[in-house]
Specification:
The complex is a heterodimer of chains A (104) and B (111).
Chain A: H1 7-25, H2 34-58, E1 63-64, E2 73-74, E3 77-78, H3 79-100
Antiparallel strand pairs in A: 2-3
Helix pairs in contact in A: 1-3, 2-3
Chain B: H1 7-31, H2 35-63, E1 66-67, E2 77-78, E3 81-82, H3 83-110
Antiparallel strand pairs in B: 2-3
Helix pairs in contact in B: 1-3, 2-3
The chains are: A mainly alpha (104), B mainly alpha (111).
């Protein structure tokens, strides 16, 4: 029997696995001060997306089944949602940094 | 309270397009003719990850983790995913990618 897909399992399977593979293949992608740029970028991502995503849910554009989350709600969003957009940014950022190594 | 089929799209593009245009202007100003090479480097991750996450989104919606009540979306679906979700992943990935390019420029100019 296939276990129920929860938000946490969704993150593990679809986001953390590719992220782990990215860092396994390119372990030095955040080396040499690039981690600092990524950290600042993530701070901006969190400051803006937190407002945007909460506003979207407040306006009823989408909603969550809290039964499929850890049950921890911060403002309008389950905790997993906050993890999602940070991890998404990290995945994109790491791959982009890697590809930019070949551009002057 | 925003209503109607364009509500989500307006919320998405209203917040992101001005930032995206600003970022793009800075990249063009800084890189001129090399902008094309920058775009060639960043667009594959942006597009591939957007398509991938839209596919993942289909499974999340099918499993009922989140849902999109009717009346605030275009009503065009890719599987069970509203079209706006693909636009969301494309736009947010591009924001991150251009952000990375700009931070790299700042660090390069200080080195």
């Amino acid at each position: 029997m296939i276990p129920m897909l929860t938000y946490a399992r969704f993150l593990g399977l679809f986001v953390c696995v590719p992220l782990a593979l990215t860092f396994a293949f390119f372990p030095r992608v955040l080396a040499g001060g690039r981690w600092l740029a990524m950290l600042v970028l993530l701070t901006i991502v969190y400051a803006t997306t937190t407002l945007w995503d909460n506003a979207a849910v407040a306006m009823g554009f989408w909603e969550f089944d809290m039964q499929r989350t850890w049950g921890i709600k911060i403002w309008y969003l389950p905790l997993e949602e906050y993890l999602f957009f940070g991890l998404q940014s990290l995945l994109v950022g790491a791959w982009v940094l890697r590809r930019l190594e070949r551009v002057r | 309270m925003m209503q109607g089929p364009y509500a989500y799209l307006i919320h998405l593009l209203g917040w992101t397009l001005p930032v995206l245009l600003g970022q793009f202007a800075l990249v063009v100003w800084r890189h001129r003719a090399d902008t094309f090479r920058i775009l060639r480097a960043i667009l594959p991750p942006v597009i591939v990850i957007a398509v991938y996450l839209t596919t993942a989104d289909h499974f999340a919606i099918s499993a009922g983790i989140w849902r999109f009540p009717e009346g605030k979306h275009l009503g065009i679906y890719l599987g069970s995913v509203p079209l706006e979700e693909l636009v969301f992943f494309l736009v947010t990935n591009l924001l991150v990618a251009l952000g990375v390019v700009l931070f790299r420029d700042i660090q390069a100019s200080r080195a």
